[in-house]
Amino acid sequence: MQTNPEQQQIVRQFQAMRSECNELVQKIGELEIEQNEHRLVIDAVSGLDAGRRCYRLVGGVLVERTVGEVLPAVRKNLEGIEQILKTLNASLLQKDKALNEFKVQHKIRVMGEDEDEAPAPQAKSSSSSSSGVLV
User: Fold this and answer.
1) DSSP secondary structure letters along 21-80
2) How far apart are CA 6 and CA 11, in angstroms?
3) pLDDT value at position 96?
4) CB 65 within 8 A of CB 41
5) Segments of the chain scoring below 70 in pLDDT
6) pTM of the model
7) 4, 27, 38, 61: which could join 78 in a potential S-S bond, CB 3.0 to 4.6 Å?
8) Parallel, antiparallel or unpaired: strands 53-58 and 61-66
9) Nearest to 77, CA basis, from 98, 60, 101, 58
10) Long-range contacts of 76-80 (CB under 8 A, 24+ apart)
């Protein structure tokens, strides 16, 4: 099956949009792991005496501090991570919506994605009725 340059451009644009969505999903996953780690640290040190010695990893260097110094910093980092997660989730929803609109607009079908919706191919109608792009 040969495709014209316009269809190739549509496929490239679709793949780029999909790649952006996948990168966002990956980044959100990484930040959720960090968020859970911060929550574990907060839970572990909240009940301790504020003057108790603890260690914090800062830029690859282990620094000795007190619980009273570390706990507010970890809480502030957690708030920042949560804010970034909200922003990334909103961005992902927006990009996913744009991707689906692009997919519908150009009649793009992804192999293996919509198998339960698509009927079995018919030999008679496959000659000229399909004008969509198959990725």
Assistant:
1) HHHHHHHHHHHHHHHHHHHHHHHHHTTS-TTSEEEEEETTEEEEEEHHHHHHHHHHHHHH
2) 9
3) 96
4) no
5) 1-3, 114-134
6) 0.77
7) 38
8) antiparallel
9) 58
10) 77/38, 78/35, 78/38, 78/39, 78/42
User: Among candidates 86, 99, 94, which has minimal Cα distance to 18?
Assistant: 99
Note the pLDDT of residue 111.
Answer: 86
pLDDT recorded at residue 5: 86
| CA within 13 Å, CB half, 93 | 5
Tens digits of per-residue pLDDT, 57-78?
A: 989 999 999 999 999 999 999 9
Rounded to whole angstroms, how far apart are CA atoms 16 and 22? 10
The ranges assigned to domains in the chain are 5-106
| 38 touches 78 (CB < 8 A) | yes
| Residue the block writes with tokens 């960090």 | 34
Fold of the 5-106 domain: Helix Hairpins (1.10.287)
Cα 35 to its chain centre, rounded Å, is: 15
